[in-house]
Specification:
The protein is an alpha+beta fold. Helices cover 34% and strands 31% of the residues. It is built from five helices and ten strands, in the order ββββββααββαβααβ. A hairpin with a 6-residue loop joins strand 1 and strand 2.
Length: 274
């Protein structure tokens, strides 16, 4: 009998792969215990410090996350902190009995640590497997329902994708280009900071996205234009997008109503400099 406290942290270990994302979810933990084992002959007090590492592979092909079976390694360590026998208060025999009990404990340390390791393994492995599989299942559902389906609905689904990982970083290349549209090629190699990320954005992504708003050839009031932009972004993001309120709050602008007359081709064009 006794008590045990387990603490753990989860991290990601990227693995090289040129045809998708490959990584291991890594669980590093330690189980600390204080127990007493009781027999008719003696009571043994033990402090346990069992280190473990569990790893579960995850891959992503651009559409679906897939998991593999987890593995766990345990490094058990038991330390005897005390021994008592029914002869503790008997002169001479108490010390002898205590010494014999300690010798028996020492002989069985390997067995006790093997049992401790198996108990940690049997607790960690199934729960880690089940928890990650459940979370990845939810992630796949959210990816389809909250991202991909909305991109398809707005005709913003990337026309080409490429994902790859190295030991140090994850790279995703996405292109949005329909018939008759232009798009940029691979940009220059950009070093990724150790604790951050980099977004390299080509202006063709912005322009091709703007074309999906279907403003070509239309005449719209400023309120109609703002309303359509807000609705489109709200539908895409799954939350309310209030651009006009932020623009009005940013500074003094003309309060006179405006009319926008868009040409049949290239109704809105964005150009990035430097």
């Amino acid at each position: 009998s006794g008590n045990q406290t387990t603490t753990a942290t989860v991290g990601i270990d990227l693995k090289p792969n040129n045809n998708g994302v490959r990584l291991n979810l890594v669980l590093d933990g330690v189980a600390r215990s204080n127990t007493v084992g009781v027999t008719n002959e003696a009571s043994v007090y033990t402090s346990g410090n069992h280190v473990f590492k569990a790893s579960k592979p995850v891959t992503f092909d651009g559409n679906t996350f897939v998991t593999g079976p987890a593995e766990v390694s345990v490094w058990p360590s038991n330390t005897t902190t005390g021994v008592s026998t029914k002869y503790d208060n008997v002169f001479l025999f108490g010390g002898i009995a205590n010494s014999i009990a300690r010798d028996e404990v020492a002989k069985r340390r390997g067995q006790s640590e093997a049992i401790a390791a198996e108990r940690v393994r049997s607790k960690v492995l199934p729960e880690f497997n089940q928890e990650v599989d459940s979370k990845i299942g939810d992630l796949n559902k959210d990816l389809e329902a909250k991202v991909n389906s909305k991109l398809r609905e707005k005709d913003l689904m990337p026309s080409a994708t490429n994902y790859r990982t190295t030991e140090d970083d994850l790279r995703a290349n996405l292109r949005l280009m329909g018939d008759g549209e232009l798009a940029g090629g691979d940009g220059p190699f950009v070093t990724v900071p150790p604790t951050g990320f980099v977004v390299a954005l080509h202006e063709s992504l912005l322009n091709n996205s703007m074309d999906r708003l279907k403003f070509a050839g239309r005449t719209m009031s400023d309120k109609e234009l703002a309303s359509e932009i807000e609705k489109s972004f709200s539908d895409l993001l799954g939350r309310q997008f209030n651009a006009t309120q932020k623009i009005d709050a940013a500074g003094e602008g003309s309060k006179e109503p405006a009319t926008f007359i868009f040409p049949d081709k290239d109704p809105i064009r964005i150009r990035l400099n430097n």
